[in-house]
């Protein structure tokens, strides 16, 4: 999302509201005094009744205005809330469409005067319209955070605009627990204005409104029909990853089993991976979200700082998963949350649609489905030479069809499970489980679906089991992979 540098012009309405409030209070007091004088000094009952009724009407009208002002409704805003006008202009162009008010040029935005960052903002209709800001917070610099919520005057405009009726209030936040200095957090903004707000900024100093950076608030409307049935969120790629062959095979296999959209958060990758990403972006199935976390922090490439020192867990993996969760909440019926070297495969059913229909019939209230993780060691290959097609050897990366040996089921298979979720039923997600959800959680039986994870081994070769599930797709998979490799320029 594009951040906006704004110049703040203090709005005279704040002063006007104070003046109006004083006038209302004075009017009520005068009305009460007049009524008291009439009732104590006038003996005519008809006069007393008339004056009393007029006094009650005037007082009621003024009290109604005061109530409206206190609750932030009608023409008035409480002076306790910082109220101002923001003159702003978007910077840069997005896809050739001119300056875009509220759309960011970076997915990571520093919060001024702090060690914290914001990522994206969404209206959460399950929390009475609260605004949820996906953020990255520093544990060492925790302090009070404040939301500045604003509404744009012209929702359809893409030119220089003014935000009006902005209010500031204290935020609540919930941080992901781990041992790193930085962690993903949901910052919640809950005020009456949040129901109409179009932009939000997070600040540590509610009285210093200069140079704020605003995010556009997405998910303004609840939708019940979705563009995609299955969207795959791949948390992030980094370290000049160049596993192009496995990526192409995984993309084509996901299309076969029913995935219609793939989202990847990209910090860095190698030249062959870049070709593959460009190809699938052009095809329309892939959205690549830039994720320059290494420009702001020193990211770890592990889940524990003693394994790989750094500021934040796995290049901010939890932040990207939660961004994808909300980004596609009203675009996709289901989300698959797994890594680049993993693929969720239905075993009993032909595709993901049949798998989820079966699971939802049995568990109609569930919103989270955990798929057990099975390790297929990348050090052991099928030896008959059937699937390392000669031309594939020219492309960097792992050949999935060579890896049909898996390690036996164990306790870690469940601990390191990955997820299929109904995003409307999830509040926050972690890597292997959801942190908050609005429905039930189902551990999917391994005979219905498994996570195939081609990686370095965890156990000895003597315990391996043959699992040829991927070979069932070979008749469609191989020609599709060949076509993609040639059209992408990975093979000439």
UniProtKB/TrEMBL annotation:
Bilayer disposition of the protein: Single-pass membrane protein
Class in the EC hierarchy, top level: transferase
**Entry-linked PANTHER family:** GLYCOSYLTRANSFERASE FAMILY 92 PROTEIN
Q: Which domain of life is it from?
A: Eukaryota
Keyword Transmembrane among record annotations: yes
Q: What is its EC number?
A: 2.4.1.-
Q: Quote the subcellular location field of this record.
A: Membrane
UniProt protein name = Glycosyltransferase family 92 protein
| Keywords, comma-separated and alphabetical | Glycosyltransferase, Membrane, Transferase, Transmembrane, Transmembrane helix
Pfam family example for this protein?
A: Glyco_transf_92
Q: Which residues cross the membrane?
A: 17-39, 51-70
What's one GO-annotated cellular component?
Answer: membrane
């Amino acid at each position: 999302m594009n951040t906006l540098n704004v110049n703040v012009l203090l709005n005279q309405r704040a002063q006007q509201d104070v003046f109006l409030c004083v006038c209302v209070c004075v009017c009520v007091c005068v009305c009460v005094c007049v009524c008291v004088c009439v009732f104590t000094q006038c003996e005519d009952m008809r006069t007393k009744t008339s004056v009393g009724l007029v006094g009650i009407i005037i007082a009621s009208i003024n009290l109604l205005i005061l109530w409206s002002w206190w609750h932030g409704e009608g023409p008035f805003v409480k002076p306790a809330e910082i109220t101002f006008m923001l003159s702003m202009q978007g910077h840069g162009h997005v896809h050739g469409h001119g300056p875009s008010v509220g759309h960011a040029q970076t997915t990571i935005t520093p919060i001024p005067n702090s060690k914290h960052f914001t990522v994206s903002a969404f209206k959460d209709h399950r929390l009475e319209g609260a605004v949820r800001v996906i953020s990255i917070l520093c544990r060492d610099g925790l302090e009070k955070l404040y939301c500045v919520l604003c509404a744009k005057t012209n929702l359809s405009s893409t030119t220089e605009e003014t935000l009006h009726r902005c209010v500031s209030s204290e935020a609540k936040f919930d941080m992901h627990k781990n041992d790193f200095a930085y962690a993903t957090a949901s910052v919640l903004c809950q005020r009456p204005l949040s129901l109409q707000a179009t932009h939000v900024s997070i600040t540590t100093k509610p009285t210093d409104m200069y140079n704020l950076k605003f995010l556009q608030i997405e998910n303004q409307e609840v939708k019940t029909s979705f563009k995609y049935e299955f969207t795959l969120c791949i948390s992030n790629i980094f370290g000049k990853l160049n596993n192009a062959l496995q990526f192409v095979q995984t993309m084509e296999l996901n299309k076969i089993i029913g995935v219609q959209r793939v989202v990847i958060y990209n910090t860095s990758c190698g030249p062959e991976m870049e070709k593959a990403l460009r190809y699938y972006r052009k095809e329309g199935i892939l959205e690549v979200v830039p994720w320059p976390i290494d420009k702001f922090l020193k990211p770890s490439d592990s889940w524990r700082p003693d394994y790989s020192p750094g500021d934040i867990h796995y290049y901010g993996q939890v932040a990207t998963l939660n961004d994808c969760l909300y980004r596609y909440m009203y675009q996709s019926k289901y989300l698959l949350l797994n890594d680049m070297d993993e693929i969720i495969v239905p075993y009993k059913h032909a595709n993901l649609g049949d798998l989820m229909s079966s699971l939802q019939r049995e568990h109609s209230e569930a919103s989270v489905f955990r798929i057990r993780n099975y390790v297929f060691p990348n050090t052991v290959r099928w030896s008959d030479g059937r699937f390392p097609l000669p031309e594939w050897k020219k492309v960097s990366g792992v050949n999935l069809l060579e890896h049909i040996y898996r390690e036996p089921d164990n306790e870690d298979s469940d601990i390191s499970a990955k997820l299929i979720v109904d995003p409307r039923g999830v509040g926050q997600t972690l890597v292997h489980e959801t942190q908050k959800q609005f429905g039930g959680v189902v551990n999917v039986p391994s005979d219905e679906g498994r996570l195939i994870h081609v990686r370095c081994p965890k156990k000895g070769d003597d315990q391996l089991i043959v699992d040829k599930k991927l070979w069932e797709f070979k008749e469609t998979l191989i020609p599709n992979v060949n076509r993609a490799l040639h059209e992408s320029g990975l093979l000439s």
